[in-house]
Amino acid sequence: MSVVSENKLDERLLRRIGELKERRNAVILAHNYQPDEIQDLADFSGDSLGLSVQASQTDADVIVFCGVLFMAETAAILSPKKTVLMPEPSAGCPMADMITAEQLRQLKAKHPDALVVCYVNSPAEVKAESDYCCTSANAVEVVRSLPAERQVLFVPDRHLGQFVQERTGRDLILWPGYCPTHQFIGEQEVRDLRETHPQAVVMAHPECSEPVKALADELLSTGQMLKFVRTSKAGQFIVATEIGILHALRNARPDAEFIAASARGVCPNMKKTTLDKVVASLENMQYEITVPSDIAARARRSLDRMVEILPKH
Prior knowledge:
By secondary structure, this protein is of the alpha/beta class. The chain has three domains: 3-90 and 270-290, NadA-like (Rossmann fold, 3-Layer(aba) Sandwich), CATH 3.40.50.10800; 96-178, NadA-like (Rossmann fold); 185-260, Rossmann fold (3-Layer(aba) Sandwich). The protein is 46% helix and 15% strand. It has 15 helices and twelve strands. The chain has helices at residues 3-24, 36-41, 48-56, 69-78, 101-110, 124-128, 139-144, 158-168, 180-183, 187-196, 210-215, 222-231, 245-252, 275-284, 293-309, and strands at 26-31, 44-46, 62-66, 83-85, 115-119, 132-134, 152-155, 173-174, 201-204, 218-219, 236-240, 257-260. The protein has a four-stranded parallel β-sheet with strand order 2-1-3-4, with helices on both faces. A four-stranded parallel β-sheet has the order 6-5-7-8, sandwiched between helices. Helix 8 (158-168) links the parallel strand 7 (152-155) and strand 8 (173-174). The mean pLDDT is 95. Iminosuccinate binds at residues 31, 48, 119-121, 136, 205-207, 222. It is an enzyme of class 2 (transferase). InterPro entries: NadA, NadA_sf, Quinolinate_synth_type2. [4Fe-4S] cluster binds at residues 93, 179, 267.
């Protein structure tokens, strides 16, 4: 198919999405790691929890979440009266799948006095078994707020957990989970880019491996990366996270150069969403994501506790 034909097809699909959005009273959310065209069509783009919160504050009847399963679950927990759809139901998160509610219950049984902090990148059932939820942006604040005499179990990402340990001085009990996509970003790749781009600021996500984080100038969540580049005087950035964020960064700072730390930093699940799948989702009201009410109520408690301890702005 020619480029012109592809553009005409995209325009037709975008028009159809606009019509269906109006008919369904829908809002479209796109995570920062989604394909460029999906980010562009979304009403809101950003990190997973921020998107769910934004959607809960709209008067939309339908939420179309272009992301992965745990994100749509979180939206369903925060918007129980809205219909939450995922255009591609097979888009999961390998890290989130590295822990189950039963495994967490077994860990809690070994440490009955410990508090459980779970990363938002986790299944609803795991959130329901946790005392607090956190994001990569606020994990340090959440753990820092907890009583010093209490042990803390941190699940599922060991890399984010190690980052929190270093920033808080707390000795956390870490679950051995990780993000395969961030694991693919190699230390030598970052070293080589630093050598060829000595003026560049290296930004890395806390989900990266310890050697990569050690090479970074800034350790930031995706939302923090966007805030940072808007005020930074630097003109060149090496970015160690999933490559989808480059689109949002370039939109935020068109005058700057953004270099992916690794071409292997691609999440295949995040790239499953397409324009035609968004159309099909809205046309057929597929695929609805629901969370059982008892699990949703307990998971909501861990999310609410997180919000309660964060500074009010």
